[in-house]
Known about the structure:
This protein is mostly helical. It is built from 7 helices and no strands. α3 runs antiparallel to α4 and α3 runs antiparallel to α7.
Amino acid sequence: MSTPASGSAALRNRADPADDALRLTRLEARLPPLLSVIAGMVAIPVFMLALAVAWVIAQASHRRGPRLARLLLSVQFMLLAAILVFSVITKPSTSQYGPMAGIAVMIAVSAMACQYALLRLAIPGAISTAAMTGNLTNTVLSLMDLVSRRHPLLPVDAGRLTRSFHLLFGFLLGCVVGAAAVALLGDWAWSLPAVLAGVAIAVR
């Protein structure tokens, strides 16, 4: 036999759809900014640690130039392949803010840190892929100088402009292809950068 007290307790324990929807709305508004702060706190130390590890690998290998580039490209390939395997197994895309997604991001950050270290340590004369906003700025301003009939504001360097344009075009193409791959392939989308990283090892 139920009592008034037990009845009221049952009502309190019963989920209210309207209340749940309100709480979800509040979480959607408040949680992502907090998670972005946490991601910033974690990703930057991981990036720094990955750079330090890349330096240690380079120093311990006693390699320079193309031989060091091949080694660091191999490390980047292994990291991207690890993301692919990890993503296919754990499906981090199903929970964007879950721990599996965080681990995948950390591996990806390490792969990019390896790439940037590669350019600085093995090919220091190359234009960095780390600062695409800088490449975009150089490309646009240099193009404006080229089409202008007035005295150019920047030193003329057609070769550097061409290289910057190629990098920018490649970056934008990568963004488009990556977005399409995520939409079509889901967690298997990591197979594309992994394959390209493997191709990069063979580039002379």
